[in-house]
Amino acid sequence: MTELRRAPTGFTIPQWNQFLELGYLLLENVLTEQEVLRYLGAIERVTSGDPKFDPSQHYARSNAVELDPDFEDLIDRETHIGFAYDLYGELTKVHLSLFMLRPRGGWYNFWHPDGPRGLPYGTFCPLLPLQLKIAYWLSDVPQKKMGNLVVLPGSHRRQTMDGYDTHEPLEGEHILCVRQGTMTVMHGSLWHRVESNDTDTVRKNIFMTYSPSWICPEDRYQNDPKWLATLPRERRILMRSYSWPYDNAKPPPADFPLFLDRDTGTDRDPGTYREHVELHRRKRLTFHEKLGRG
Known about the structure:
Helices cover about 15% and strands about 15% of the residues. A 6-stranded antiparallel beta sheet has the order 1-7-4-9-3-2. A 3-stranded antiparallel beta sheet has the order 6-5-8, with no helix packed on it. It is an alpha+beta fold.
């Protein structure tokens, strides 16, 4: 029988408070130089095999974890999966995996939040994100006009803003200048845009977005079954590649627990249910519920 893992480390209390207040975290030196080179190597292999790749143009590939073996560990990488698990618990799912290259003069985003536009996620969940976006920075972006991510702190609590679909600078915006190896953790409802890249440095990122399993994925219907069969248990579960659609809302019993409690190592919250209630039918408290907020 496969040994079950404890949930990896997620938010600290100060990080959680900052995340709720600003809508994002910026954590430096998360990737080592060797890890950056490994992911850059995977990007090189994918782009070199794509006849449509043009290094002078913006380029992105989704469902990245299925494109190269060196991307697979991103599904449950311990430097970030705990953040998603703190929000979505036993129903955590990979919503999107993507790498992106932004060269000089390439396409860049206007102000927007992630998720649906006509009826934003905040309509249903004003505090907690229904998308959590993790970004790894594989190139140095130490100054403005390098394709920087620009965020409006606190704007995840707003469903509208005057700058929507414009590239206008806004009072209070943060233009992120980051070093290679940095990780950002972003609330999906945070309004953000991208600066133009006026340099010869190509901005290179990997993005991993997580959501509750009952939200449809962004980059696939299902994954290749042969590929799924090669994955360790937790990675297979996190992809939520179910043949029966309602399994996304009620995953099969074998997929519980996703992780053991990180503090106690148990697979259930004691004293909540009578003993006859099966494990996959039990509600477990998430990190934010244990704090009594959200």
